[in-house]
Amino acid sequence: MDLTAVKDLQRRLESLQAEARACTRCVGDGLLVEASPTFSGNAAARFFLVGQAPGPSEFHSRRPFDGRAGKELWRWMARAGFRSDEEFRSFTYIAAVMRCFPGRNPRNDGDRRPSAREIANCSHWLEAELELLRPRVILPVGQLAIARFLGPGPLEERVGRQFGEDPVLIPLPHPSGQSRWLNAPVNREQLGRALALVSEWRQRCATRTS
After folding, report:
1. Directed axis angle between helix 116-133 and helix 3-21, to 10°?
2. 137-140 and 47-51 as β-strands: parallel, antiparallel, unpaired?
3. Helix (H), strand (E) counts: the chain
4. CA 95/CA 152 separation, integer angstroms
5. Helices 68-79 and 185-209 sit at what angle, rounded to 10 degrees?
6. DSSP class of residue 115?
7. Residue 37 DSSP SS3
8. Claim: this prediction has a pTM higher than 0.85
9. Residue range 6-47, pLDDT digits in tens
């Protein structure tokens, strides 16, 4: 892609992002008290990471994966060969199936799972970004994001494998401390295989654009 095309793509992306940041649809529908659309990335991103929804830290910072889950995610990406969190973020567009913090769950022991209506309200933003950026690799993080691309299914059958060709999907478990899936040694081994795939594709994508 030549410089003029890159600049045009970045301009179109920034226009889309401005529209997304101004979205208050879920507030208007009575689903949220306050809108807080959170995502990051630019037109040069090679990877596209899709999470579940922002948490309370992201609600305040408007920076995806800015809390404890983000610290664990960065440790994973370091294992995949990224030299810093900022290098990973410059390489990766980061969004979620729900763009705003959904609030705490009724037990107040974790974040509320986004409702089907909230996900539907946000779906056109994700679809527009994917169509515009056409990433080489998609990293769906957690069951909700994985199901968005692959349908329902256990993590044991998804993590550690890649799916598709263009784009390639590499599912990852959620790095939240609430998840107990990684307590099992066999599941940690699957995560290791997934991160090896991320590393392989990081090198491939970096080589193609260097």
Report:
1. 170
2. parallel
3. 8, 4
4. 20
5. 70
6. P
7. coil
8. yes
9. 899 999 999 999 999 999 999 999 999 999 999 999 999 999
